[in-house]
Sequence to fold (119 residues):
Amino acid sequence: QVQLVESGGGLVQAGGSLRLSCAASGRTDGIYRVGWFRQAPGKERESVARIYRTSGFTYYEDSVKGRFTISMDKAKNTVYLQMNSLKPEDTAVYSCATAPNIAGPFDIWGQGTQVTVSS
Fold:
């Protein structure tokens, strides 16, 4: 089983930056994809970005493209989300999740970290 722990959230002014970390432990060799998701109050959870563990291929949703960067440090089993030019609408609980294959659901989730962007 994989365990995920997110960190790095906080309060930042609009235009500022934060870097989130997602540290994986346990049977990490079974991870195929790692994704970052977010959920704002009263809204459904939405995808933000994902990275494919073997190829390093990355994908971003349009809402964060050009502002956020997902990366990974395989030696540390950690995936990062660098968030720049933050906007108040980026305020949400950010969670990372893993999937064991190329197209199936993300089935292991972290507890989430709060990101608040003030205007």
